[in-house]
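Quick illustration, no need to memorize.
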Amino acid sequence: MAHNQRNRTPLPRLYLVSSGEENACNGTLLLNQLSLLPRSLPCMVQIREKQLNAKELLGLALQARAIELPEGTLLLMNERADIALAAGFDGVHLPENDCSANTLRAFAPELVYGCSVHSAAALCIAEESAADYLLFGPVFDTPSKRKYGAPQGLKKLGELCRATSLPVFALGGITPQNAARCIAEGAYGVAGLSIFQDTAKLAETFEQFYLHLNQ
């Protein structure tokens, strides 16, 4: 049975993933992104700097936490529940085949737990671990994922969304223009990485996404 901790407060429908290349001393792009988030548009933000050691990652997380974010925005740490807790984050995102959300929830029940899924089998595992949301992709072609094979496509997105009651975020080649197609297949929201890296257009990009998400 799915964990219902988040039923009281709906998750934001837009999900920003950090570049994965932030500097240990000064995560310039990430911190700029956070400071430029539109005040009226909440989002999920996942920090996934896997190359940083624990001390460096905590330092970056504390800098992120110190920024005043739009109300309802949730900060998530990739994999590291210990650092999420230490930095006062809202949740943890778990890669497919990683530690069970239920295992971590025993130590940190207040956190939101998300899981990446790429198949029906992974969906079953995520549901059994009582994840709060799912991240599925890549839906469309995206350069960073080409080495892993062809995109999953809208059909597989729809099949997965219909197979679960958990909120599903579509990831991979997502734009404001194709976001509505993901929602039409049953996705709860959409996620992106490179599309949010042009900070000069970040506010405009967010506004365009929410316009299409609410159609």
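Residues 54 and 138 are 28 Å apart (CA to CA).
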